Amino acid sequence: VDLDSWSTSDMIEAMYDGQLAACAAVRPALPAINAAVDDAVPALKRGGRLVYVGAGTSGRIAIQDGAELRPTYDWPIDRIVFVMAGGMQAVLQSVEGAEDNEAKGAEAIAQAEVHQHDVVIAVAASGTTPFTIGALRSAGARGALCIAVANNRGAPLFQLARHRILIETGAEVLAGSTRMQAGTAQKIVLNLFSTAVMVKLGRVYQGLMVSMRASNAKLLRRAEIIVSQIVGCDENDAAKFVQRAEGDVKIAVLLGLGWEQTDAIEALLKHEGNLRAVIDEVAHDST
Predict the structure, then answer these.
(1) Residues 141, 283: Cα–Cα separation, whole Å
(2) Torsion from C-alpha of 157, 162, 168, 170, nearest 10 degrees
(3) What is the pTM of this model?
(4) What is the spatial distance between Cα 206 and Cα 275, in angstroms, rounded to a whole number?
(5) Element holding 193 (H helix, E strand)
(6) Beta-sheet strand order (sheet of 80-84)
(7) CB under 8 Å to 224, separation ≥6 — which residues?
(8) Scanning 162, 190, 204, 241, which has its CA 20 to 30 A from the CA of 227?
(9) What is the pLDDT of residues 108-140, one digit of tens each?
(10) Which residues contact 175 (CB under 8 A, 6 or more apart)?
(11) How far is CA 179 from the centre of its chain?
């Protein structure tokens, strides 16, 4: 309560302790995150989309998570949907009152044409935000897989979700500022969920981002290192494989392992882009 009268060091230490508490609050939620991932992966394999829903700080944190999926995992842009109270302009500038309209949340879900194979992740610190509640209720009525992330045990949002991810971060150091502990915990949960989903979908191999597209100099260099590590070749050869594969890391790896490009493409299509499945099949056939 006397935060504004404290020394800078005491203030920073208190806020830091709050961040550590936020991290610790995620551990009890791990089983719920696990269940949500295992349910989401089959839906996404059937062509579903990831739909992020939120308002204010929670919405911005959700959008940040989704926005990272294309550059990191080459997740298709048309399979990510952002449902933000006040529209995407609210990401940079607060749109007052937008979060108070439940009907607008339902309307946004209808406009996005959410369907039964979509995975809808609704995030709200209090779990009471009308816009987010309206969106999740509408998504559930359309048969989508609904996941709720909230920091309040009694959140009404949980009543509308198949998977309820509770992260009890408690009172904020700065009262009401959910960008602090609550926001940190939400970010961790979304990081865990989306990363695990992408791994389960075969977009990671040996802990490496093999679905990444080498679309700039930095990513091109990273692609060459990844190919070199997996194939066991020098980086000059890896660069040639990446160039022949037009920046597609998985194809470059298979080229490095001696595959013809057309065969590599066909094998990846057969195994839904899962590089491990392709390599394991070859290893199995050779034994």
Answers:
(1) 45
(2) 0
(3) 0.91
(4) 10
(5) helix 181-200
(6) 80-84, 50-54, 119-124, 145-150, 163-166
(7) 235, 238, 239, 242
(8) 190
(9) 999 999 999 999 999 999 999 999 999 999 999
(10) none
(11) 18
Residue 195 carries which side chain, given as an amino acid letter? T
285 pLDDT band (50/70/90 cuts)?
A: low
Answer whether 157's CB lies under 8 Å from 87's CB: no
Bridge partner residues of 163 (DSSP): 147
Residue 13 makes CB contacts below 8 A (sequence gap 6+) with: none
Tell me how many degrees the CA angle 263-267-269 measures, rounded to the nearest 5: 120
Spell out the SS3 assignment of 101-148.
CHHHHHHHHHHCCCCCCCEEEEEECCCCCHHHHHHHHHHHHCCCEEEE
Largest CA distance in the chain: 72
Most confident of 24-33, 69-78, 80-89: 24-33
